[in-house]
Structure formats: C-alpha cells, structure tokens
Amino acid sequence: MPLFDNIRSGFLAAFFVLAGAGPALSQQLAVAPTMAPNSQFLLRIHASRTLEQYLQFLRSDFFSIDADVDGQITQRDVDLHTVMETVQGRTSAVSHVMRYDLDGDGSVTEDEIRHGMSYDMRSQRGLAAFNKIGKPQLPSMDVSAVQIETAIRSIMAVDADKDGKVTVAEAARFGVPGRGGRPESGQAARARQVLTLDSGTKAAVTLAEYQAAGELLFRNVDTDNDGIISQQDLTGYRARAERAGCEMPAASEKAKVILLSSYRTDALSSVTLGSQDKIVNAGRVVVEAGSEPLYVVIATHSPTIWQFTGAVERIERLVMSSSPIGSNSGVANQRSAVGATGVPQERVSFFARANCLTYFPETPTGASLQTVAAVHNFTGKAPETVAARHSVASFKVPSGAIETRVEQRSRSAFIRTTEGTRDNVGNTSNVMIQAGPRRAKDEMDLVWPGGVIEIDPRTVVGSASAVAYEVLPAPAGLVQLLSAGTLTQNSLGEYIVRQKMRFPAGLQGAQTFLIMRGTPYPDGDPGHSCVIVEETGEKKGATCPFALPAPQPQRER
Question: What is d(CA 194, CA 203) in angstroms, rounded to the nearest whole number?
Fold first, then answer.
C-alpha cells in the first residue's frame, strides 16, 4: 500500500475511534434528502463570471468536499465529514449547555439555567418591567419568562438519569441530529449530492468529472456562448428552471380550457394520499352535457380528491395541483397530493412539483392572474371559464357554477365561553357563541358541513397511492374514536386515552389528550394539541398550559 494511502487510512480510523463509530459507519448512517447536484454548481454562477473563473471556484469546492484528500469524492468522504460534523455538533452542544454551570461542578441544574438566562436577558427583562409601569399584567405574559422556562425544559430533557442535573456527557446529546445537529446540511450533505451526479449513484467522482458536470450547467446558462455569464443569461435560466416540472400537455384545437380554484372543500375524504398524517379533502365536479371537449385545470391549497360525475366523456385532459404542505413545504420537488375518480388514468396529468400553480380564492387577484397566464402559456389557450371560491362543495363545468356550504360560516366571529354571561353590543348577526367545552361533533358540523365522503381507494387516480384512513382526519377522527369508545371526555372537554390509538391527522385546535397510566403513546401526529402523560407527568405540545416541570423524586444518598 502506498505511503499516502497508509496515512489516509490511519487518519480515518483515528477519527472513527475518537467519535465512537464502528467499522460499518457508512451502513449505519441514514442518508438525508439532498438537493440536486446542479444546485451546488449554480451557487457559483454569477453575472460577469467567466468560465475559467467558474472552474477555479469548482476546483476549490471539490477539494473542500474531498475530506480524505485522495483526489476523488466517495462514501469515505461522506463518512469522514459526518464524523467531524457530529463532533462539532457535540462540542457546540456542550458549550451551549455548560455555559450555565455557574458553580463549576461540571453539571447544570434548572436553577443555574434560570439564573444564567435571566442574566443574559437582563436588558429585555428590564425593558419589559419598565413598559409594565401603570399597566399591570399577569406574570405568564412575560415573554422572557416563557422563553427561559422553554429553554429549561429543552435542556433538562437530556437529563437521562433524571437526577436534576445535566452532566457534560448528557449535554453532548443536545447536539445529536434533530436537537441541533446538521443531518441535511454541511459538507457531508454536499458530498452525498456529488455522488448523485447524473441522477444516479456513483461510487466515486473525480475532479475532472465534477468540473465537467459544472461546465455543462455553465454552458446551459450561457445561452449566447460567449464564455461570460450575463444577467440576461441568469434571468433566462431561472425562468426556464421555474417552468421545469410544470409542463402541461397542449390543448386540442376544439378544447375549451377551464380553470377552477379553491383553498379547500367543505368535506373530508375517507381515503388519504400517501400518508396517514395529512388531511385530504373531497369535492365534486359535475360535467354538464355538451359536445366540446374540456381541458380542466384545478388548483387548490389543500390536498383534495375530486369525484367527477355527469358527461365525463367530455374530459380531454384533467390537470390538478395542491400547495406544498407540512414539514417539507420548502422542498422544491415536493409533489402535490391530489387525485380524482371518474376520469380515466390516461387523461389525468400531475406536475412533478407542488409549486407550479398558485391557488386563488376569488377573481381577479394577483394569484389568479399569474395562474391564468401559466395555464395559457402551457396549454396554448387562455381559460374560457375561471371559477374560484375559498371553500366549495362542488363545481360545474364548463359553466363554472359553484355550490358551497361553509363560506358564510367561515366569515362568522366565533366565541367560546365556559361560564357566566356575555354582553354583546352592536350587530351580532355574524357572531356564533358556544357554551361549555369543545365538542368534536359540533366542530365537525361547523367546519366540515359536507361530512366525510366515502371513496373507494381502488377508483382513485392519484399523485400518490390512495389508501383508507386508519383513523379519519381532523374532528371526524375524534368523533370516530369517541364513538368506538377508544376516547372519552371529561367535563372540561379533555380527551382521555386508555387504549392504543392513532391521533387523527390535522389536529389544529388546542385539544388536550390525557394518556393514562399503562396506555401506549398514540401513533401519528398530535398537531397543535397538548398531550399529558400520566406515567411521567410529561407535557408535550406548544398549547399546554404554562407550568414548571414536574418535580423529580429525590434520590437516596
């Protein structure tokens, strides 16, 4: 083995040992989602930059990614960068937590964090106290106090032995991925991106291959082939990139283009698209009798399944989209969650990404003008009918007639009161008052007056696989769980969980779930709910009432 390889192997082995990693580190690491390699190259393309200047920057980038300095980028570079970034994350975590070790004993307590943060926030706390003069407020409204207690809960969560102290070893856990780590950024992510050149997976990428891929992008941007990137080149490339993945089939000569849009529908679907943790709406499209072929485009905010009935043979093409949602809403290539029944699969088109069309709740608006223009550009025809509403039950095409049940209610002021009386002055025609604790059936009737539409998942042509919900979404799921006896409610409206269950998708309100002793923690996402676990007294969720953490049992000395 050459001397350089011996040095490199020893260098890698030493770092793996220091980091506590086993020999199969590359097999243990979860590969995080990454951007296309082109995004790395594009960062180096600027107006007035020549090809030689650009290639010089790529050489510098390559050698910063080539962690073991062997002249090629491989999985070994991903592993080494990951080790180093993990070490850096741990160091940062320990530094962040142990700065509150006020007595220097090598551990941090709640009181030390509270005193340390109070000192750090002295200016903010002083201004808050000054502004309260003559304006008494409840202590819970003190923003700095809330921030301090939130930080205490976050740091003390890594107190593994629950002795009320966070040691250096425990503090290091504050920097693991998901708690301050960098699983989707940094040099390890860049190395993973390089290994996906040409949309494949390469075992190794050399400098020549790296620069060749970058040069290809440069020449695609440099449309006038003068070897210099102009602002016009950049603007044109970005416009082309925005259209990529948003292509629509051209409309036939006789087809009438119809554009429909809404924020949501007034009914829920009994099936979901791709995930149990999302709310999927359901709506209807009635195709009116006629002879002209119809090219129908539907842009919604919410994931939706549309049921087509009537003269569906008139549908020449159906194109649907929904907005990016959830924790991955910022991911450029996230696909829409949409589907339809009643239209043959060969006549249905989906976009490669979810941000191709913008929904609009009325016309004209800036969003509607942009979406109309996009449809015109792609189909070759301007929409002859444009219909939109915030919430719909059904559309009729090609007339654009809309049926809705929830629109008027959504504009009402909603007041909930648990006791006493309330005097209302002025026009109260749009005010709705509910007494007592929240009830799922009432909320379901108010927000989803169309109920749940039963759909056979086998009939859905969707952008993702259609499967029946294990538990219906939103209030419908709470009603379902209450009816089955899986949930019960106390007099305060809190939900008591005594059986294994799944949280309904899309819980937006401030519900409280009490997980009773011996009951497994539910599957799914509790959304905005507060979850209190009897076994430990732990509270989970931003809507939980503000309170200090439960006292820890004293250990015997």
Answer: 10
| C-alpha–C-alpha distance, residues 198 and 43, integer Å | 18
- Long-range pairs of 422-427 with CB within 8 A, sequence gap ≥ 24: none
Give me 221's structure tokens: 């941007």
Are the beta carbons of 268 and 282 closer than 8 angstroms?
yes
Residue 326's pLDDT is what? Answer: 56
Pick from 128-137, 161-170, 215-224: least confident: 128-137
| Look-up of token digits 């009603």 | 479
- 504 near 524, Cβ under 8 Å? yes
The answer to whether 363 and 388 are in contact (CB under 8 A) is yes
Residue 273, Cβ neighbours under 10 Å: how many?
24
CB atoms within 10 A of CB 130: 8
Amino acid at 149: E
**391: helix, strand or coil:** strand
pLDDT at 199 over 70: no
Residue 453's nearest CA partner among 347, 349, 348, 340 is 340
C-alpha span between 379 and 352 (Å, rounded) = 16
Question: pLDDT tens-digit profile of 247-291?
Answer: 899 999 999 999 999 999 999 999 999 999 999 999 999 999 999
Least Cα distance to 216 among 472, 418, 9, 38 occurs for 38
Kindly report the pTM of this predicted structure. 0.63
Whether residue 389 has pLDDT greater than 90: yes
Distance CA 150, CA 541 (A): 11
Contacts 24+ apart (CB under 8 A), 278-281: 278/303, 278/325, 278/326, 278/337, 278/473, 278/505, 278/506, 279/303, 279/473, 279/474, 279/505, 279/506, 280/304, 280/305, 280/337, 280/473, 281/305
* DSSP E strand boundaries for 393-457: 394-397, 402-403, 413-417, 431-435, 452-453
